[in-house]
Known about the structure:
binds aspartic acid; alpha/beta; binds adenosine-5'-diphosphate; globular; 13 helices; four-stranded antiparallel beta sheet
Amino acid sequence: xxxxxxxxxxxxxxxxxxxxxxxxxxxxxxxxxxxxxxxxxxxxxxxxxxxxxxxxxxxxxxxxxxxxxxxxxxxxxxxxxxxxxxxxxxxxxxxxxxxxxxxxxxxxxxxxxxxxxxxxxxxxxxxxxxxxxxxxxxxxxxxxxxxxxxxxxxxxxxxxxxxxxxxxxxxxxxxxxxxxxxxxxxxxxxxxxxxxxxxxxxxxxxxxxxxxxxxxxxxxxxxxxxxxxxxxxxxxxxxxxxxxxxxxxxxxxxxxxxxxxxxxxxxxxxxxxxxxxxxxxxxxxxxxxxxxxxxxxxxxxxxxxxxxxxxxxxxxxxxxxxxxxxxxxxxxxxxxxxxxxxxxxxxxxxxxxxxxxxxxxxxxxxxxxxxxxxxxxxxxxxxxxxxxxxxxxxxxxxxxxxxxxxxxxxxxxxxxxxxxxxxxxxxxx
Length: 429
Ligand code: ADP
Ligand code: ASP
Ligand code: MG
């Protein structure tokens, strides 16, 4: 008997029929003798619908008062899910109780719409488990020190589930979703993508942070920090398949590099079209300029991703960086009001139609020439690279958004990740 956490995403909870299926699957685990905590997302499309309603009643604003209400609103999606799932479990004859984040409580900071979990109290959950109940905890939400409801950012139910698993020292956290594991790239974009039976924690962290939304990045961070055994698997297998088979399916996130394991140089391709590029042209090339520009942006609590500064000519240079597309207008505003007046240039250019494509792989550490192979594959498709950023196990390029799918497909092929590649040639070192 073990304590297991299941997380079900929006599609898996997408209709009352699917919720009944989730209940049947959870009931199967209970009947096998496990203690179960379940963390569901809102029904698919619901969070978008709720945030869409907000846009209908008032134009988007960034002040705290508005962000607070967005969380109040968006958190209701998960509250519906937990109630329905508890009812469905009751119908299966399984005792179950549902909680909103604040009832557990899952404590977070007060960064509305992107709050971070600070602690999770386990007493209530443990006593329910001891009383033989399935505990269903709303994903995506928590409560700050002043009792305000917060949410954890889009895709945040993954993080709720892993954090709950860490707090309860669960034997495993199973993330049930609408694909049967982590693939070499999004299988919806590249049908030839292959499922990985295992992926290292570091690679998963890079893939998530580079845009693979199969796991929210903070969930992977939590799994690493607390060594939570984590698996991504399908919620669309028949609910009554044998537990042993189900528990071994999907993709396991591994924490130890197995030296014997053959390691692909590039394990996956991630992409993200959530960013926008901002350039300031003709900036004086003197100490303190980067700080002057990016300090003002950071003060406005805007996260900056890729940064590039060109070689200067006649003491002037161009400075470009990317931010989340949602923050683009605010970034330009900050530059115009705070930076331009002291900078000696007001030539600000922006491009919201960019995307970032990244190759990720632990094998990149010990192989040279991987980045150049990437650049060659892109040049063969006539794709212009606007920015480049690298780390030990990834290389990212910023390109025109309209070439995104072409770039991902070309790289997937160039690094021998396509399904039909013979295994011996599949990028093994
Ligand atoms: P859920 O609602 O279950 O949280 P998400 O839509 O958030 O599901 O995440 C699952 C989706 O992630 C898949 O449907 C797939 O399109 C996408 N995805 C992106 N990159 C990958 C990848 N490398 N492997 C698997 N799925 C991926
Ligand atoms: N319902 C939230 C969202 O759509 C959280 C999640 O699904 O993980 O982003
Ligand atoms: Mg998700």
